Amino acid sequence: MMMDPAAIDALTKDQRQLFKQQLELFARYLKIDLRAGDRSFVDSQKAQSALQAQLDLWTTEHGEFYASGIEPQFTPLKARVYDSSWNWARQDALTMYYDIIFGKLTAVDREIVSRCIAIMNRSNPVLLDFMQYHMDHCPTERGETYELAKELGQQLIDNCKEVLNEAPVYKDVAVPTAPHLEIDAKGNMNYKEAPRASVRKLEHYVREMAEGGKLSEYGNRTKVQNDLQRIYKLIKQQHKLSKSSQLQIKSLYSNVIRSLSMNEGQIMPSENGKAAGGKCGRNGRVNASAKQGKVETIPFLHLKRKDDHGWEYSKKLTGVYLDCLEDAAKSGVTFQGKYALMTGAGAGSIGAQVLQGLISGGAKVVVTTSRFSRKVTEYYQSMYSRYGARGSQLIVVPFNQGSNQDVEALIDYIFDVKKGLGWDLDLIVPFAAIPENGREIDSIDSKSELAHRIMLTNLLRMLGAVKKQKQAYGYETRPAQVILPLSPNHGTFGNDGLYSESKMSLETLFSRWHSESWGNYLTICGAVIGWTRGTGLMGANNIVAEGIEKYGVRTFSQQEMAFNLLGLMAPAIVNLCQVEPVWADLNGGFQYIPNLKDLMTDLRKELTETSDIRKAVIKENAIENKVVNGEASEALYKKARIEPRANMKFDFPKLPTGTRRSSLLTRISRVWSISRRSLSSPALLRSVLGVTRGHVGRWKPTASSPLKDASKWLGSWVSSRITTVLSRARATLVGSTPRLVSQLTTRMSSRSTRSTFLNIPVSDSSSPSFSTAMTPGTSSLCKKFRLRRISNPSKPPRS
Q1: 57 and 94 fall within a common domain
Q2: Which of 243, 295, 372, 664 is the most exposed place for a label (fewest CB within 10 A)?
Q3: Which helix (H) or strand (E) element contains residue 559?
Q4: Are residues 668 and 746 in the same domain?
C-alpha cells in the first residue's frame, strides 16, 4: 500500500504538536532552555564575524608583509656558543707550521702578520708548550723549509711570551683600499677595490682623515662671518629697536662683511703707494702673506658638541677621537671584559666587520640573526675560529627585531642570572635594518612600516628594556654605550620609503638623554655613517664612488668604517659619552656637496654612455670582421673555456717471454697437479682458489692483440684443472658486469681458510676471446655446482 508523504504528515501533525507541547512543558518544569544551543550558535557566529572583521581590518591596514615580519623567533634553546679560542689557536699554529714546511708560505705579508696577531691574542701557557714541542722536534736536516719553519716559529713563540700577560687587542694591518672602475674595450664595467695611493696602513689613513679635503676648508674670516651672522640675527630679533637703528645695524653689518672679503692690501694700501694685490709696488715686491687668511679644514672624521645653535664641530673632542684612532692603528685597542649586544651583523655588512674587531679584542658578544640556519651558524663559527681572542665569547641567537616579544625575551635572556647569561651590557650596537629601495611618498607599504618598526620603534623598546633590567639589578654605575646608526641621508637620495624618517627620529635621543631618567643606565654616541662601499644599501653605487671622490669627499670601505666605529668604543670616547651625548660625523665631507643626487645621476649617465659606445664599437667591428674574413674567423676571438678532463693512460702490459711463461706454467702445474688420493686431505679443503680478470682496454684492440692467444690458452688450462677442486668443495662464482672485474672464487665450509688468488688478464666480456677462454669453465661449473652470481664484486660472498 502506497501513501503520499503529505498525507502522512497531515495524519501525524496533531501528534507531533502534542509531543512538542509536552516537551516544552517538561523543559519549563526542569528549567531547561531548549533554544540555548541556537542562541549560542548565533552568538558565536556574530563573534566570529566580528573577529574576522577585525582581522581583515588589521591585515588591510598593516599588510601581509608586516604581519609575517613581526612573528617571534627567539628561543634560548637554539643559542650557539663559541668560546674555544684556545683550540683554534693550536690549529692555526699547526697550519702555519706545515704551510712553511710544504712551501706554501714563503714570504711574510700582511695576511701572515694578521694571523700571527690572532695567535698572539690567543696565547696561553699550554699553547706555548705545544708550539715549543714542535719547534724542538723539527727536523731541520731535511731541508731549508724546515729551518725556516723553526726560525719563524721560534720568533712567534717569543712574541707570544711577551704578550702572555697582556690583554688581547684589535689591530688591523690590512691595506686601505680605494674604489676603482675600469671600462674595458668591450664596454664591460669592472669594479674592484684597489690599494689607495699614499695610504699604506691605517696610521696613514688616520692622518688623511685628519687633514680633510677642499670642500671642508674654512678660514678665520669665514668663522668671523658666521659669528657675525649669528649676532646680526639675534639683534634683528629684537623688535623693540627702532627702524632707524635696525637699518644702521644692517648697513654696518654689510660693511663688515664686505671688508672681510677684501685683502688687507685693498683696505690699507702699502707704504709704497701700491696695493698689496697682484701688482708690484715701487720696490717690485709682492706681499704674498697678505693675500689670504689662515685656512683650516674640518677633518673627514670629527666629533660635534651641542651648543645653543645646534651641533657644531668641536676641535677639542675631535682631537681626542683622532688620538684614539691613531693609538688603535699603532698599538691596537682592547675590549677585554666588555659585554656587547649586536644586531644586524650579517655577512657583507658593516656590523660583521665591527663584530670581528670586538671578538679579536677579547669582548663577549651576543649577536642576533633573523635567518637562523646551519649556513649562518657556520659563518659565525668560522669568524670566531679566525678572530676570536683569549677570553672572548660569541653567542648566536635567533631574533626578529620586528617582534616586541623577541625584544623583551632577548634582554631578559642576557640579564637573567638563573635562566640566562647573567651579563651586564657595556656596548649596544643596534645595526639591524631592511632596505626600502624604490618607494616614494605615494608607495609607502607594509614593508616600509616594518622597516620603521625595526629601525626606530623596537630599537627604542630595546633600549628601554635594557634600562629596566639595569635598574632592577642596580647597575647604576656602569651605563651601556649605545652606538646609534645615524645617516646623512635626510631624503637626499629619495626613493627609500621611511628610511630617512627612521634615522632622523633617532636624533631625538640626544635631547631625551638630558630630559628623561635613563641617563645613568645608557649613554648615547650617534655615528653618522658615511658612504660605505660594498654594503647592501650602497653596493649598487660602487661604480660612481671613484668619480664622487674626485670632488674632494671620501668614501669608505667596510674595513675602514668598522675601524672608525670601533674607535668610538675606546675608553676615552666612552668617558666623554658619560658626560654628555657625542655626535660623531663619519660622513667623509658629503654634507658639503649641495646636489649629490644630481651629481650621481650625471656620473652614472656618463659611465653608461661610455660603456654603450664601446659595446657598439666592438659590435660593429665584429660584424665587419665577419663580413671581410668569414664566419670562421670569429672563433679565433672567442674565449674558450677549458674544463678539467681526465688524462689517464694505461700502457699495454708486458707479456712474459717464452722462458718466463714456461716457468710460470711449471709452478702452477706443481700446485694443482694433485692425485685423486690427496683430494681428501684436510689441508686442501681449507684452500681457496680465486681466478680474476682485469680489464685492459677496448675489446677490439684487446681481441686482436697478442694477449688474445695467451688469455685463451691460460683460461682454458685453468678451467680444466679447477674442476677437480670444485668437485670436493662449496663454490661461489663472483660474476662480472661488462668492463669490470670478473672473479671466480671457491670457498670451503671451514671458517679458517687460506686463500690463493691467481690473476689472469683476459680480454673484455664482449670480445670473442672471452667466450672462448672462460665459457667452458664458467658455464659448466655454474650448472654442475649451482654457483651463486653476485652483482657487486666489491663485497665478498658469504660462506
Answers
A1: no
A2: 243
A3: helix 558-567
A4: yes
The burial of 575, by beta-carbon neighbours within 10 Å (0-12 exposed, 13-18 middle, 19 or more buried), is given as exposed
Using CA atoms, how far apart are residues 99 and 121, in angstroms rounded to an integer?
21
CB 350 within 8 A of CB 431: yes
The pLDDT value recorded for residue 264 is: 41
Q: Look up residue 445 and give its DSSP letter.
A: -
Q: Does residue 89 share a domain with residue 58?
A: no
pLDDT band at 408 (very low <50, low <70, confident <90, very high): very high
In a domain, 39, yes or no: yes
- If residue 482 lies in a helix (H) or strand (E), which one and from where to where? strand 480-486
Question: Containing domain of residue 740, as a range?
Answer: 658-785
Same domain, 662 and 778: yes
Among 586, 591, 593, 596, residue whose Cα is nearest residue 209? 586
Of the candidate ranges 369-383, 707-721, 777-791, the one whose mean pLDDT is the lowest: 777-791
- Has residue 727 been placed in a domain? yes
Shared-domain flag, residues 119 and 229: no
Strands 302-307 and 295-297: unpaired
Q: How far is CA 602 from CA 544, 588, 597, 607, 610, in A?
A: 10, 21, 9, 9, 12
| Co-location of 673 and 759 in the same domain | yes
Question: What is the percentage of the chain residues whose pLDDT exceeds 70?
Answer: 74
User: Is 120 inside any structural domain?
Assistant: yes
Q: Are residues 680 and 737 in the same domain?
A: yes
Q: How far is CA 247 from CA 226, 229, 460, 783, in A?
A: 20, 15, 49, 128
- Write the CA distances from 131 to 96, 128, 169, integer angstroms: 11, 5, 21
Measured between alpha carbons, how far is 189 from 541 in angstroms, rounded to an integer? 13
Q: What is the DSSP string of 183-231?
A: E-TT--EEEEEEEPTT--SHHHHHHHHHH--GGGEEEHHHHHHHHHHHH
- Angle between helix 768-785 and 707-726 (nearest 10): 10
Whether 466 contacts 343, CB under 8 Å: no
- 646-692 pLDDT per residue, tens: 887 778 777 777 787 788 777 777 766 654 345 445 554 444 445 44
- What would the grid cell of residue 613 be? 659606445
With contact defined as beta carbons under 8 Å apart, do 684 and 756 qualify? no
- The structural domain count of the chain equals 4
C-alpha distances in Å from residue 393, one per residue of 84, 160, 359, 362, 604: 8, 21, 7, 8, 44
pTM: 0.71
Q: Which of 485, 497, 424 is nearest to 65 (CA)?
A: 497
User: Which residues on adjacent β-strands are paired with residue 369?
Assistant: 398
User: Do strands 522-529 and 582-586 pair parallel, antiparallel, or not at all (unpaired)?
Assistant: parallel
